Amino acid sequence: MVSYKELGLVNTREMFAKAIKGGYAIPAFNFNNMEQLQAIIKASAETKSPVILQVSKGARNYANQTLLRYMAQGAVEYAKELGWEHPQICLHLDHGDSFELCKSCVDFGFSSVMIDASSLPYEENIALTKKVVDYAHQYDVTVEAELGVLAGVEDEVSSAVSHYTKPEEVVDFATRTGCDSLAISIGTSHGAYKFTPEQCTRDPKTGRLVPPPLAFDVLDAVMEKLPGFPIVLHGSSSVPQEYVDMINQYGGKLPDAVGIPEEQLRKAAKSAVCKINIDSDSRLAFTAAVRKVFAEKPAEFDPRKYCGPARDLMTELYKHKIINVLGSDGKAE
Ligand code: G3H
Ligand code: 13P
Ligand code: ZN
Fold first, then answer.
1. Considering the chain, what percentage of its residues have pLDDT values greater than 70?
2. Is residue 261 part of a domain?
3. CB contact at 8 A, 133 and 3
């Protein structure tokens, strides 16, 4: 058993309480490799933003659980080396799909876990979430749960349709499970294709897809039922068109990729939404930078020469999110 406290990590309790009070959101960035982690820490340290490092089940399998834990511990030390005196870094399991996986992460030094039982029937979601909460809370590890189903692919769980969270269920769910935060479904979805062209309109000037608005009425109703309770938004990448264009220009193929417009995320961040999940945008930045080097310098074969530019572009992206979208800069001196 390794306690996250020994690794210099923090859970989400205080982060979320401050974020709700201050009208901003904590960035939750997924990582799978060293360059992503370096970019996240550099951006957070330079902006003094609290940050959640997210590891999915797939990432844990890809990178190895032991290595990931030491990477997170290293991230805290790296942050200090960069001059961030009191780093506020949380290591979080993204979309845990079983009690065993959540327990293993708690035992391995995670400071927060998500149990995503949103695809199960309501009572089963409650039972599994409560089981995880009961275990995690013994070690002061915070737990995120989910109610409602996002469209698209949720880690290894796939759903073709989105079912918005039912506001009438949230009080019962939060009370009976004891979860610390709640991910809700209001129209966001995972990946780089959040809406079909049929769901969007087209900007007549640019020809770009314009997505439909998120269901802020559902968010408002949830906040009314659970005042001051931490709400989480998954699937919140904006799919920056400059990265999509770069990828397509240098041999990629991402037709009609579309994300959540930043102004909608800005609005959400000012509410009780205190955690905003971003993964796809980082994948796009990484891929765009690598494709550019490959196209322009076909003789290059030193990975540092293409992973380096990818890291720089991701750092720029994370800083932009922190400062211009979530407003979490300067909140963890
Ligand atoms: O919500 C899903 C995250 O983007 C993680 O995706 O399972 O491919 O690592 P992944
Ligand atoms: P995106 O695919 O929109 O980046 O969402 C990531 C996410 O929700 C991770 O849990
Ligand atoms: Zn997610």
1. 97
2. yes
3. no
